[in-house]
Amino acid sequence: MIFYGTKSKHIKNDRINNVDCPDCTTTVSMNYSVYEKYAHIYWIPFFPIKKLTFAECNSCKKTFEQKEFSPSIKQKIQHSMGRISSPLWMYSGIFIIAALFLFGMLSSVQKGKDTVSYIESPKIGDVYSIDNSNGFYSTMKLTEISRDSLTLLLNNMEVDKKTSTDKIDLEKNYVEKKVIAKTELQKLFKENKIYEVVRH
Known about the structure:
Number of strands: 9
Largest sheet: 5 strands, antiparallel
Distance between the termini: 37 Å
């Protein structure tokens, strides 16, 4: 269940003078308060929605909503209030999402660089995630390195999601041995048959 909704936060108090109260019809001063209404998800503020202004007559103590302001009250409050910027914390959710997106992009770029480096310099224990071109994915593990060739153990299990190969990366699944040239490994990577390398 997603908890979402709106909340209001008090952001300013001030006073205006020499205005006619719509209720007691006397010339008075009024105290006004400004609240910022914002949307939140799981109590994390995402963005401001609108400002709410309330005014109280210092004579009859009647409180007025913004829609009840006379033109003169509205004008004086706007002049007194000036421009109020929404607090930055009200955009916290957007900042968090942007930071996570940026982190994901940087991680992806770094992962790509690591994969290229691991292909160029193989190391015993490397696990290669491979695309079998039939809608299924598997892995193979490097066990021996010679001058021009690599000895791999092939995984006899497959999964239907690229991101799930770690679930079948178990010692008992590696049963078939295959020897390939080092250049063949690079060729498989260039053809996108190998799409990830995990170095433990």
